[in-house]
């Protein structure tokens, strides 16, 4: 039984089909099909039902999937233990935020690929919260605050932000000084959300209102630059605009509390060395103030 056949079977099972599994693995669909067929021949049973909706696990496949995933993880862990120091192989599939990923995190992934020529790095930049297991990611980089989940979260470092608005908006609507005054202004929202502001040692929760929403921090900055309202965004997206005077900090006595940069991975006993190396590299870059 080939380890690649086991890994491919798990990928097809989690992806829900050959085409998506092939894209995740970086191989042809015919290669995926051959590996699955070879595993089924070795086991003497079918693992998938081929339907008009695609490839789905049958009862035998659903039973075997967890065993195959554990065996593949154990073998990967064993390989890492005996590999030459520093050598990384295989695939690292990472989800990163679209707002910060290409500018702040992509250089780290590129450095990692340069230092480890046998490593295949696949990154996906989206502000959507991906399902790490179902979509086949080794880990995700997330910024801000985390909601409850069964994922393992490693905090890399803090990330700071401000409330900002354009000079035109402030001239037309004034600059809020307190959390209560902020409620009278147009908020640029990431979704249906609450905002947290600091009041001395206390964190106050408010429910802002606004007519502009976006699921991307860069889009919220664009709306702030256009004078539509007040945005709450990380400093890394606004420093340049504040320096030029295109945006102005507001609520400076009541800033938002700091968030964090996190690496999330699926729960499991053996975090891969690829993920551990990524965490180490990110901590070296972002372990201080961001």
What do you see in this structure?
This protein has 290 residues and is of the alpha/beta class. It has three domains: 3-82, Winged helix-like DNA-binding domain superfamily/Winged helix DNA-binding domain (Arc Repressor Mutant, subunit A), CATH 1.10.10.10; 90-157 and 260-286, Periplasmic binding protein-like II (D-Maltodextrin-Binding Protein, domain 2, 3-Layer(aba) Sandwich), CATH 3.40.190.10; 161-257, 3-Layer(aba) Sandwich (D-Maltodextrin-Binding Protein, domain 2). The chain is 40% helix and 26% strand. The protein is built from ten helices and 14 strands. Strands 4-3-5-14-6 form a five-stranded mixed sheet, covered by helices on one side. Strands 11-8-12-7-13 form a five-stranded mixed sheet. The N and C termini lie far apart (47 Å). The mean pLDDT is 89. Belongs to the LysR transcriptional regulatory family. This is HTH-type transcriptional regulator TtuA. InterPro entries: LysR-type_TF_proteobact-type, LysR_HTH_N, LysR_subst-bd, WH-like_DNA-bd_sf, WH_DNA-bd_sf.
Tally of helical segments: 10
End-to-end gap: 47 Å
CATH topology of the largest domain: D-Maltodextrin-Binding Protein, domain 2
**Proportion of residues in extended strands:** 25-35%
Number of strands: 14
Largest sheet: 5 strands, mixed
Q: Classify the helix fraction into a percent range.
A: 25-40%
Shape assignment: elongated
**Secondary-structure element series:** HHHEEHEHEEEEHHEEEEHEHEEH
- CATH level 1 class label of the largest domain: Alpha Beta
Widest β-sheet, arrangement of strands:
4-3-5-14-6
- The radius of gyration is 23 Å
Count of separate structural domains:
3
Structural class: alpha/beta
């Amino acid at each position: 039984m080939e380890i690649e056949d086991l890994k491919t079977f798990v990928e097809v099972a989690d992806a829900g089909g050959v085409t998506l599994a092939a894209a995740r693995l970086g191989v042809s669909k015919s290669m995926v099909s051959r590996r699955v067929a070879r595993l089924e021949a070795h086991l003497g049973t079918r693992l998938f039902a081929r339907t008009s909706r695609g490839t789905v696990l049958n009862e035998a496949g659903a039973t075997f999937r967890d065993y195959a995933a554990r065996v593949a993880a154990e073998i990967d862990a064993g390989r890492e233990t005996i590999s030459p120091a520093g050598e990384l192989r295989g695939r690292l599939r990472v989800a990163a935020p679209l707002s910060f990923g290409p500018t702040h995190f992509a250089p780290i992934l590129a450095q990692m690929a340069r230092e480890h020529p046998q490593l295949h790095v696949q990154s996906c930049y989206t502000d959507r919260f991906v399902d790490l297991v179902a979509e086949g990611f080794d880990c995700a980089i997330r910024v801000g605050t985390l909601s409850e989940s069964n994922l393992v979260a490693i905090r890399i470092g803090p990330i700071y932000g401000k409330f900002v608005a354009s000079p035109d908006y402030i001239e037309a609507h004034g600059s809020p000084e307190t959390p209560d005054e902020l409620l009278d202004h147009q908020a640029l929202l990431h979704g249906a959300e609450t905002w947290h502001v600091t009041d001395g040692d206390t964190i106050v929760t408010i429910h802002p209102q606004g007519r502009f929403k976006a699921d991307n921090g860069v889009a919220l900055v664009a709306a702030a630059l256009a004078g539509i309202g007040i945005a709450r965004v990380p400093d890394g997206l606004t420093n340049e605009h504040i320096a030029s005077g295109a945006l102005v900090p507001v609520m400076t006595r009541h800033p938002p509390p700091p968030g964090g940069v996190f690496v999330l991975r699926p729960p499991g006993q053996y975090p891969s060395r690829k993920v551990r190396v990524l965490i180490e590299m990110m901590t070296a870059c972002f372990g201080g103030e961001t």
